[in-house]
Amino acid sequence: MQKPIRTCALVGKFQDPRVAECAAALVPELLARQLTVLAPQDGSASRLPAGVAPTPLPQLIERTDLMIAIGGDGTLLYAAGLVAEHEIPLLGINRGRLGFLTDVLPQDMVSCLTAVLAGDCEADRRALLQARLISPAGAEARGFALNDVVFNRLESGRMLDFETHIDGRYVNSHGGDGMVVATATGSTAYALSCGGPIVDPRLNVLVVAPICPHTLSDRPIVVPGDSRIDIRLSGHSQAGAQVTCDAGMLGELKAGGRLEIVPAGRAITLLHPPGYDYFRLLRSKLHWGLGGLAHER
């Protein structure tokens, strides 16, 4: 049973006119439904519509029943990072470009909001990854990712030499720009540009995709979603590398250290409008089916 929604948090780049326009139309609808509306207390607080309370993040997370991300997928990934350790559902309103995750169009946001408050929306659980970056001295940094964990080179003109192990078993030695480890959710992001497959988000799998591999035989692979993936720089590698979780910096990987990627054991809930169809979303974003028979109803 859906928890009653009394407090909403808005997340977005409110200095962007498109985001500001959308927020200005949405906030009166929220207030008219007797909802408290919060937003992070940051540099964009002065651009917020009347009726929105700028709130420090710890208090915002503690009070929020629903988080609404207005913008592109990057905004929703930021919001996902905020709620990764909390059971706060996410609704994404698309004011970006592709918008695989922010799938509610501005003209549909009021009807979708009504469905959310009535409990008629579609709740979509998406698994998270956890990355552990371990230094040669044993220091550790951790991060969560909804889309992907990316290991790539710091310097142009230098190739990374590294090894991958999955569940303790040696897989390959690589030369190239790095590696993307993506969830099914993230299969339509960076991993796709590396030649990885599009994966139905209902599948519990990971895509392991080399970035610009030096050999054509080094191809993306799909492994079970509960796999443990270890990446280590080879001892003779001279290039530096960095690790990001959903494009947020986690730290640098140095020779003698390692990157471990495992299931986080938790998920976030994305809310979709009634009638949500993943394949219709793919057709819309990737322009499939143009020139073919019309199947839309």
Polypeptide structure, described:
- This protein has 297 residues and is of the alpha/beta class.
- It has 2 domains: 7-121 and 273-286, Rossmann fold (3-Layer(aba) Sandwich); 128-265, Sandwich (Tumour Suppressor Smad4).
- 19% of the residues lie in helices and 38% in strands.
- The chain is built from 6 helices and 17 strands.
- It has helices spanning 17-32, 57-63, 73-83, 109-118, 190-193, 278-286, and strands at residues 7-12, 36-40, 52-55, 66-71, 90-94, 122-134, 140-145, 148-153, 160-166, 169-176, 178-183, 205-211, 221-224, 229-233, 241-245, 248-253, 258-272.
- Strands 1, 2, 3, 4, 5, 6, 7, 9, 10, 14 and 17 form an 11-stranded mixed beta sheet that branches. It has a 6-stranded antiparallel beta sheet with strand order 13-12-11-8-15-16, with no helix packed on it.
- Helix 3 (73-83) links the parallel strand 4 (66-71) and strand 5.
- The model has no long low-confidence stretch (mean pLDDT 92).
Quick summary:
The chain has six helices and 17 strands.
Features of this protein?
single chain, 297 residues, alpha/beta, Rossmann fold, eleven-stranded mixed β-sheet, six-stranded antiparallel β-sheet
